[in-house]
Design brief:
Elements (H helix, E strand, L loop, with lengths): L1 H5 L8 H21 L3 H22 L8 H28 L1 H28 L1
Length: about 130
């Protein structure tokens, strides 16, 4: 089992995981329209997910590694605050409007989870 985690692998591409998450967000729209869920919740989740992915794509362009320690640290801190920022927004919205916040949370969590899952499959599948 140690070889699974110790084998060096290239960083997986972002295209397929991003498209998988986008599919969740897009496919959630008809569910919201037919189910009578708050459309503002879907819009919030979509905006947060797109903003998070855009930030991730921008950060992926920054060189990291032993030769760029300052930039590596900045990327790590920014990626951490990306998740914290989304949590703060979703918490504040849920406190103000429970239906909208919970519906936005569900869509965002599903999109993020699928994106992460596809990334892991790509990483360990290569």
């Amino acid at each position: 089992m140690p070889s699974i985690f110790s084998t060096p692998r290239p960083v997986p591409g972002r295209r397929v995981p991003t498209l998988a998450g986008a599919a969740v967000v897009v496919l959630a729209l008809p569910v919201f329209l037919v189910g009578g869920f708050p459309l503002a919740g879907w819009a919030l989740a979509a905006a947060l997910w797109v903003a998070g992915e855009a930030l991730g794509l921008w950060l992926a362009r920054i060189p990291t590694g032993a030769d760029h320690l300052k930039k590596s640290g900045m990327v790590a801190v920014t990626m951490s605050f990306r998740g914290i920022g989304v949590m703060v927004v979703l918490l504040a919205v849920t406190v103000a409007d429970r239906g909208m916040g919970v519906s936005a949370l569900i869509v965002y969590v599903l999109a993020y989870t699928l994106t992460l899952g596809v990334s892991l499959v790509e990483y360990f599948g290569s």
